[in-house]
Design a protein that fits this description.
The chain is α+β, with helices and mostly antiparallel strands and 938 residues long. It folds into 4 domains: 207 residues, tricorn interacting facor f3 domain (Immunoglobulin-like, Sandwich), CATH 2.60.40; 221 residues, Neutral Protease Domain 2 (Neutral Protease, domain 2, Orthogonal Bundle), CATH 1.10.390.10; 106 residues, Immunoglobulin-like (Sandwich); 152 residues, Zincin-like fold (Alpha Horseshoe), CATH 1.25.50.20. Helices cover 40% and strands 18% of the residues. An 8-stranded mixed β-sheet has the order 5-4-8-2-1-11-14-13, with no helix packed on it. Strands 16-17-18-20-19 form a 5-stranded mixed β-sheet, with helices on one face. Helix 8 crosses helix 9 and helix 23 runs parallel beside helix 26. Keywords: Aminopeptidase, Cell membrane, Disulfide bond, Glycoprotein, GPI-anchor, Hydrolase, Lipoprotein, Membrane, Metal-binding, Metalloprotease, Protease, Signal, Zinc. It is a lipid-anchor; GPI-anchor.
Length: 938
């Protein structure tokens, strides 16, 4: 269908014609912020890789001891300029004629150097000149003489600008209050190398110091920082301004300093506070409750009290910051969707996400704040622990929710993908440039490291692990740590026990996992005559088999059909060689399963006969095998088959038991398998056969739900997860009952102007839109645009992309592109989300994008709004969703219509993607899979 500008404009007016659109005014353009940034290095200040440019590291002849920082800001007016004065107290440990610290983007006005006498008196030592190395961001002051060993003070006056194009350093956000007035928020994000954007400093994690902070700001605003406010006084020479003075911090890294200036208000419980904009503070109650519960749980778990070091804990919700968070000691910052929860508007997923992210950030108060990494090489000592204790802490605080059930499918299995490639890195990895350091904050630092730590927590025993962590935390408190410090703490806790084999150390075992990339597959080949098995290990690659010399120390245990001891995690053996024959005593007619509860960070493969026995056991009695192992078996079997280590037919046969599966976790693993084949087969001759297979799996489970558009009061968290997953598949493949219920629920919501329960909102709205009228579509759009809750807006944007009326989708795209004043409440990240929601929801959206962007005027406006990179991404996503000859022709016509707006390389890559999709059907995996589905359907 061809859309004229007039048609699109009229549809835009239809969507936008609502008084609710004028609630928000213009927001500054900020690209979405991606959670955090991290990285590593080595030497006296950490392990160094000589192949990496070490010139980015600071000289080691001076070290900081204390900073006194005074800032003046007019941000309440939207003014980006700020002024600063920092007193840097430092020691010269090696005589030097240069003082080098970091600076990014700050203008140095003046500097003065003082010598500290033994009696504490300061003696002026001159006005050093300075120079900046823009490449390394090193700011060097030259005093004009060699400074002997001793203590000094360097006072630096400077100016800077609050960031508006990135969520880093000292940056500016805003929101619109209930009177329609824009209010500004000044906030910080210093990890990993951004403190230097707010004040000149020694911006390396080991160079810890104490901090005293004063901020001068409008009297209508307030300031918050790591420490409590000690005093608020009128600002001299600035009518209407006050200076907020904070207490001195403990010794900590520069990246953990934080502050905020805003008109926010707080709710409080004891020594904890949550800050948010006044028109959202009513959504902060759960965050405060969770903060108190989680901190109490982690205090008890670590046996090291947070309040022995910090007098308070504040959490702060920042508008338009994305969904990330940052663990600044005593002042944890979050994007609003990661902290604010409204039970009338937000889903169970939002609540779960908030509980886990709060626990993640509060775990950092010990792992990262109390004890930090020696250098970014060891960022896994921060992020691995926070990843693991995010789930454990949330589970301890809310045991009935069973958050721990989600750990393996959301972390272990998530890490397996990127860690199965040639390009993956080890957990301990050096980096020195800001961009390379930022690159270390990846799945390896989070998911893999948390998974490996959990493996050793299980093997050593939780009590021993906790005792070892206490030794580690107290030994390294207020200082930096390397991996060996952790190992020493754990070793101290188990010395004198028989937890590990004689002569084997924690360091030996853990080094085999932390210093090498990748992970192993444990091959189990049974001898059914004598009950023995041959165990062997090799590195698992997703796409090849390559011999490696490395040997992992693999802890293993197993359960059998006659002894399904899945809950016994107290006894392990070790595979410390490439291969070994072991006695199991398992009868020939028994199945055997290794890696109980998937606590080990490795895959397991069996001989075909044992796989068949496992599949048969699952079909006979689902409960005979632990739910975590059911998820493991599904994920392992599919990925082993994709790597040509297992027959794909056997993997698909295994999944057939799912028709009797009522637990979410195995279904979450299966969801990835089904999505893989859906994306391959949609729009092809094999699609019908695949749907027959899906129907056989989901049908009985879907029928057990009854009404999917309402939420029973006693429905558990994992039941909510399961219902959304299954009903999404049921509606996607065209179940009449699923589509009837969602359509009727949307009709009722529109007629009564009453939104559906948030826990079913996505499924109801997404599939209820299948035949929705323009009035219904406009109603849902208005629900989104009038909401002031970012998490709710995100869900509604995703649902709006599900429409199957091309004119509705094109009008939504035009909203994302457009600049009507009524639509300026859309955040830049929300505009981008609209685009991705359209192509992600199905082929209808892909064709709507093609139809709209084939118009040169709209395509140019798209590039003007989003940039060339986003258009390239759209082309790539259209190509990846192109599965047949007719769709390929549409793609080719689309590429021709775009013309010079995309490069020849982008167009060629899109066509290659389609050819690769086509070629899959002639691969062994493709032929085997389509044959399996055909045989199943017939």
């Amino acid at each position: 269908m061809v859309f004229t500008i007039g048609k699109i404009f009229s549809l835009l007016l239809l969507v936008a014609a609502s008084s609710t659109l004028s609630v928000f005014g213009q927001r500054p353009a900020h690209p979405e912020w991606s959670d955090r940034e991290f990285a590593p290095v080595l030497d006296a200040f950490g392990p160094r890789d000589d192949l990496i440019d070490q010139s980015y590291r600071l000289p080691t002849d001076t070290i900081p001891t204390h900073y006194t920082i005074q800032l003046h800001t007019d941000l309440h007016t939207g003014n980006r300029a700020f002024r600063g004065l920092v007193d840097v107290h430092f020691d010269v440990v090696v005589p030097t004629d240069a003082i080098t610290l970091h600076n990014r983007g700050l203008i140095i006005v003046s500097a003065a150097l003082f010598t500290k006498e033994d009696d504490g008196l300061l003696v002026e030592a001159g006005f050093p000149h300075h120079e900046l190395d823009a490449r390394t961001e090193q700011l060097t002051f030259h005093p004009g003489r060699v400074l002997p060993i001793g203590s000094y003070l360097l006072t630096i006056e400077y100016t800077g600008l609050l960031e508006t194009s990135s969520n880093s350093g000292f940056f500016l956000k805003s929101y619109v209050n209930d009177d329609g007035v824009r209010r500004y928020v000044g906030t910080t994000q210093f990890e990993s190398t951004n403190a230097r954007m707010a004040f000149p400093c020694y911006d390396e994690p080991l160079l810890k110091a104490t901090y005293t902070l004063w901020i001068t700001h409008s009297g209508e605003y307030n300031a918050v920082s790591n420490m409590p406010v000690e005093d608020i006084v009128p600002a001299a020479d600035h009518d209407g301004y006050v200076t907020t003075k904070f207490g001195t911090t403990p010794k900590m890294s520069t990246y953990l300093l934080a502050f905020g200036v805003s008109d926010f208000v707080a709710i409080e419980d004891g020594q904890q506070q949550v800050y948010a904009r006044p028109n959202a503070i009513h959504e902060a109650e759960f965050a405060l409750e969770a903060g108190v519960k989680v901190l109490n749980a982690l205090n008890a778990y670590t046996d090291v009290s947070y309040y022995d070091y910090m007098p308070k804990l504040s959490q702060m919700a920042i508008p338009d910051r994305g969904s990330g968070a940052m663990e600044n000691w005593g002042l944890v910052k979050y994007g609003e969707p990661a902290l604010l929860f409204n039970p009338a508007r937000n889903t169970y997923r939002t609540r779960k996400g908030i509980a886990v992210v709060i626990a993640h950030e509060l775990a950092h108060q010990w792992f990262g704040d109390l004890v930090g990494p020696h250098w970014w090489s060891y960022i896994w000592l921060n992020e691995g622990f926070a990843n693991l204790y995010g789930y454990i802490g949330a589970d301890l605080a809310y045991p009935s929710e069973r958050y721990w059930d989600l750990y393996a499918v959301e972390n272990v299995q998530n890490a397996f993908g990127p860690d199965a490639t040639d390009s993956t890195r080890p957990m301990t990895q050096d980096a020195t440039t800001p961009s390379a350091i930022a690159g270390l904050f990846d799945s390896i630092a989070y998911d893999k490291s948390g998974s490996v730590l959990n493996m050793f927590r299980t093997v050593l025993g939780d009590d021993n692990f906790r005792a070892g962590l206490k030794v580690y935390l107290l030994d390294r408190q207020l200082d930096g740590a390397v991996a060996d410090d952790l190992y020493a703490g754990l070793q101290a806790a188990i010395d004198g026990t028989d937890v590990l084999p004689a002569g084997v150390t924690v360091k030996q075992l853990m080094d085999s996992w932390t210093t090498e990339p990748g992970y192993p597959v444990l091959n189990v080949r049974r001898n059914y005559d004598d009950g023995s098995v041959i165990l062997s290990q090799e590195r698992f690659y997703a796409d090849k088999r390559t011999p490696t010399e490395h040997v992992w120390y693999i802890p293993y245990s197993f359960a059998t059909g006659s002894k399904p001891s899945f809950d016994d995690l107290a006894h392990f053996r070790w595979l410390a060689t490439k291969a070994e024959r072991v006695e199991t005593g398992v009868a020939a007619d028994d199945w055997i399963i290794f890696n109980k509860q998937q606590t080990g960070y490795y895959r397991v493969n069996y001989d075909a006969h044992n796989w068949a026995k496992i599949a048969a056991a699952l079909r006979t009695d689902v409960s005979a095998i632990h739910r975590f192992n059911r998820a493991q078996l599904i994920n392992d079997a599919f990925n082993l088959a994709r790597a040509n280590r297992l027959d794909m037919a056997q993997a698909l046969d295994l999944l057939r038991y799912l028709s009797g599966e009522q637990e979410y976790v195995p279904w979450a693993a299966a969801n990835g398998v089904l999505n893989y084949f859906f994306n391959k087969l949609r729009g092809t001759a094999s699609y019908h056969d695949f749907i027959v297979y899906v129907d056989a799996l989901i049908g009985p489970v879907f029928e057990s739900f009854g009404d999917i558009s309402t939420v029973p009061e006693d429905e558990t968290l994992l039941e909510k997860y399961l219902k959304q997953l299954i009903s999404t598949w049921a509606c996607r493949v065209g179940y009449t009952e699923c589509l009837r219920q969602t359509t009727e629920a949307l009709h009722a919501a529109v007629e009564t102007n009453t939104p559906v329960h948030p826990d079913v909102s996505y499924v109801v709205y997404c599939y209820g839109l299948k035949g929705a009228t323009d009035d219904e579509y406009r109603w849902l759009f208005n629900q989104m645009i009038s909401s002031r809750n970012e998490a709710e807006r995100a869900v509604l944007i995703d649902a709006l992309g599900c429409a199957q009326d091309q004119s509705q989708l094109v009008s939504l795209l035009t909203v994302a592109i457009g600049s009507n004043s009524e639509l300026e409440s859309l955040l830049p990240s929300e505009r981008s989300r609209i685009v991705s929601s359209i192509y992600s929801a199905g082929r209808f959206g892909v064709e709507a994008l093609i139809a709209a962007l084939s118009d040169p005027l709209i395509a140019q406006e798209f590039v003007n709004r989003f940039g060339q990179g986003t258009l390239n991404s759209v082309v790539s996503n259209v190509a990846s969703r192109t599965n047949n000859a007719g769709e390929l022709q549409q793609l080719e016509q689309f590429l021709a219509a775009l013309g010079d707006l995309i490069s020849v390389e982008t167009a060629a890559a899109a066509v290659r993607t389609v050819k690769t999709n086509e070629a899959w059907f002639q691969t062994y995996e493709g032929v085997l899979s389509t044959t399996y589905f055909a045989d199943f359907a017939n």
